[in-house]
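Hi team,

Filling in the usual template for the complex we talked about on Friday. All components are listed, including any nucleic acid strands or ligand strings, so the model treats them as one assembly.

SUBMITTER: L.P.
PURPOSE: interface mapping
COMPONENTS: four
RESIDUES: 426
SEQUENCES:
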Amino acid sequence: MKQKRFKTPLVTINRLSIYYRYLESLKETEEGRNLETISSRKISIATGVNPAQVRKDLAYFGEFGKRGIGYPVIDLGKELRNILGLNKEWPVVIAGAGNLGKALAYYPGLEKRGFLVKGIFDNDPKKIGKRFNNIFIYSVEDMEKYICEWNTRIGILTVPANFAQNIADKMILGGIKSILNFAPVYLKLSHGVRIQNIDVSIELEGLTYYLNS
Amino acid sequence: MKQKRFKTPLVTINRLSIYYRYLESLKETEEGRNLETISSRKISIATGVNPAQVRKDLAYFGEFGKRGIGYPVIDLGKELRNILGLNKEWPVVIAGAGNLGKALAYYPGLEKRGFLVKGIFDNDPKKIGKRFNNIFIYSVEDMEKYICEWNTRIGILTVPANFAQNIADKMILGGIKSILNFAPVYLKLSHGVRIQNIDVSIELEGLTYYLNS
DNA sequence: TAGATTGTTAATCGATTAACAATC
DNA sequence: TAGATTGTTAATCGATTAACAATC
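RESULT (copied from the run log):
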């Protein structure tokens, strides 16, 4: 993994995930498994990303391909794994044991990518002590302690909007550096903490706008 | 609602949702309810969007503010409602009665914004006939028929990746024009169909990339 | 050699933001 | 009038894509 020379935009990183996922999907077919190299054109067709964009994105991190030939499937996959940090396991915590927290606890895609849900936190006494997918539900009061103990740097927020800022602050106190936020609010975060928002209503409203016009 | 003169970018529409949500949240406090006007600066502080950007976004659709004064809270809220198409009810269907489909069926944020989940579709006989949040689960075989009958134009996809393309095609046959896709795949869609992808793994990988470096 | 495809430059396109005249 | 704030222009910034020399 060559050191990048310029700041790589987040959109590029997100597309690397898309390319990686496509390379992984090749393993599922006989035809794909027999493929030694892949061209930016083929990646483009499978992912919807312009081929020049594919080459540019990859070129941020090194010269992985051979001119006239393409990219070696297996090696490129390994490179992307390393770049994205998927070569290691990431302990994560979920705050909010509602339906969404539960869905995430049961979602096999997390463990598949190395995200290990170590614990779920809630303030409802009826939920504390139970398990989702064999993952224990703890009291929010103990969240800071466990985040620290498990050396967790990624937190997933699925609490209601009015609690989100408070719970995010608690996560950060425990040592969380990156938050995946499902609560429909703008979170004010201290410097050095990253956030990615997933907002179902906003996405749906993007759809209704265009249906409307 | 003034006719827009130029093509409005999707990012602008998404930010309109954010402004609208903020205006709605003002109703929840005594202080907010007493506010007659709001400045782009205040909206900026609450939403994290640059004030010039706020004014530009709103200016795509009309002159809603008064110089020296700001924007009238109530009227601006109404304008945004109309622009985003939230002044009417939108029937939606969910394909996939897994944990995520269930979480969405129970999510109160949908109905609050006018999204009415008319039915859920699955191919598992053990699920068909049951209900989530009093919403009936039908066989996927009947999906096309019901989409048509309910005049549904929005579909939410929460099926596994390998089924997604097939189910999306079925939705489109029924008359779906906009799809909110949670399946981690690139869907090839016919012209005139819009899609918004929500991909938890990609968002998480965006976080691990930066934690890694 | 001819065809294919990368890596990279340069052109294009689009989105953000600073600045300021207009005006309440 | 003085202060505040919009609406809009122009400058800036950044991302996408076409084009092509390099090279397998």
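MY TAKE: The mean pLDDT of chain A is 95. The longest strand of chain A covers residues 115-122.

Thanks, L.
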